[in-house]
Design a protein that fits this description.
The protein has 296 residues and is mainly α. It is 59% helix and 1% strand. Strands 1-2 form a two-stranded antiparallel sheet. Helix 2 packs antiparallel against helix 5, helix 4 packs antiparallel against helix 7 and helix 5 packs parallel to helix 6. It starts with a strand and ends with a helix.
Length: 296
């Protein structure tokens, strides 16, 4: 069975019992965050899953212990083991066979949204110049096999370096342009996502499982860079704020500035915050794009 399209959150239109209100229904109906309805519904359905409720508390302590083991191994062998292709094939296999379609939808959306946000920044900060980045347009789990997670992390750092070198060359700085170019901000189209009998693992549990594998099967430098790239949410958010002249979305960023890195032990939880921050920033830019279209 396939998840052909996003479905409404169960009970979103139903009456509730004031004596026993559903916390998830309250969050689904809440409009304080500029989240795409598709992403919000997928996130809430995934958070409600039995996997997150019963499996995550068991998996998390073991996963964090394995991160410590992986870091001890890399203390002795900083560049061994190094198996990114095996890692990404294993992740793709797990996504296809064991993750919920909601989890897969959120993972695949993240690559698209991150690429769109970076392109929006370069379109408005350095018109005509675009850093040479790896394309990020996966439509199904198999598309992550080509080291996509690793390339995603590299893209962020390469983008920041290339963009700031170009601004230095031009003698310019981040400031609102006369007219914002929102051509990079658009919809995300994915292939049908499998909902088989074993597709029951939620996103947060999957991330906790994948993180120690990431720590072990990449070099110590690759893992450290990937873990600390999560805090670049604030950097990217500041860039968007300076270009748009709007700073409201900065209050919704929870990973904080990368100049003070967090421990890699909490990388799994921070990755969830990273995904949420990306969805919020993209949703915020979509709102600004719609506003500009109306007033044009």
């Amino acid at each position: 069975m396939s998840d052909l399209a996003p479905t409404p959150f169960p009970g979103a239109e139903a009456a509730h019992d004031p004596r026993d209100p559903d916390p998830w229904l309250a969050l689904m109906l809440d409009r304080s965050l500029p989240l795409a309805e598709e992403a919000k519904a997928a996130l809430i359905r995934d958070q409600q899953s039995p996997s997150r409720q019963y499996l995550l508390p068991i998996v998390r302590p073991f996963a964090r212990a394995m991160i410590v083991v992986a870091q001890l191994v890399h203390t002795v062998f900083p560049r061994w083991p190094h198996a990114p292709r095996f890692l990404h094939r294993a992740i793709a296999f797990g996504m296809h066979h064991f993750l919920t379609p909601e989890a897969n939808r959120l993972i695949l959306r993240h690559f698209h949204l991150g690429a769109q946000i970076l392109r929006f920044i370069s379109d408005n900060a350095t018109p005509g110049f675009h850093p040479d980045l790896e394309p990020m347009r996966p439509v199904c789990p198999d598309d992550v096999r080509d080291n996509l997670f690793l390339k995603h992390d590299l893209n962020i750092y390469n983008f920041l370096i290339a963009l700031n070198q170009e601004m230095s060359r031009r003698g310019t700085e981040l400031r609102p342009p006369a007219t914002l170019d929102f051509s990079a901000i658009g919809e995300v189209e994915l292939a049908p996502l499998k909902r088989g009998p074993f597709n029951v693992i939620d996103l947060q549990t999957a991330i906790e499982i994948y993180t120690p594998a990431y720590a072990l099967l990449l070099t110590d430098r690759d893992f450290w860079r990937a873990a600390n790239s999560l805090q670049l949410d604030e950097t990217i958010g500041l860039y968007a704020a300076r270009l748009t002249g709007e700073e409201k979305h900065l209050a919704m960023i929870n990973n904080r500035h990368p100049l003070v890195p967090f421990s890699t032990l909490r990388a799994g939880f921070r990755l969830m915050l990273h995904g949420l921050s990306t969805e919020i920033l993209h949703g915020f830019l979509r709102e600004l794009k719609a506003r500009q279209t109306v007033t044009a």
